[in-house]
Amino acid sequence: MVNIGKVIEANMKSKQEFKMSQARFDELQKELNYLKTTRSDEVAEQIKVARGFGDLSENSEYDEAKNEQGKLYSRIAEVENILLHAVIVEEDVGPTDTVTIGSKVTITAANGGKTLIFKVVGSQEADFPNGAISEDSPVGKALMGARVGDVVTVEAPRGSMNYTIDKIER
Q1: Mind listing the pLDDT tens digit for each residue in 87-110?
Q2: Residues 6+ apart with CB under 8 A from 114
Q3: Is the pLDDT of residue 76 over 70?
Q4: Model's pTM, two decimal places?
Q5: 135 — phi, psi (to 5°)?
Q6: Domains of the chain
Q7: Contact assessment for residue 17 and residue 87, using Cβ atoms and an 8 Å cutoff
């Protein structure tokens, strides 16, 4: 016999959440609108033109246009799923004594290494080259909930690395 309570609990745990700022949410809505209107029309026109080249079984332009259409539909579904499960995080509001999403964190390698500055963001806004790390990244996971003075251990492919938290800002 199936325990309905356990099934519901398992489904709740598997629920996706995409934490992001209002600005990122707005960007994704704008992208979705573009994909469903302008880009969709462009791909439909590519298919129409390619059909005019004759036999579809040997028509590379038609195959290319259909592949583009598949990519378009895939991206539309992905963006719709992200928006459906989006959780807006107010980055300017929150504690300054612990690391949360929206925190700007200054850390120093415990072995006397270099000092790094990161902003902790949701997974949809990660931009490592510009110092924005996801809360789901190894560094982000280690930092979440930590306080100034704490030493955090980051589990990375190269092995464990220790960092001291020097400063937390909003």
Answers
A1: 988 877 667 789 999 899 999 998
A2: 108
A3: yes
A4: 0.72
A5: -60, -20
A6: 15-88 (1.10.287.180), 104-169 (3.10.50.30)
A7: yes
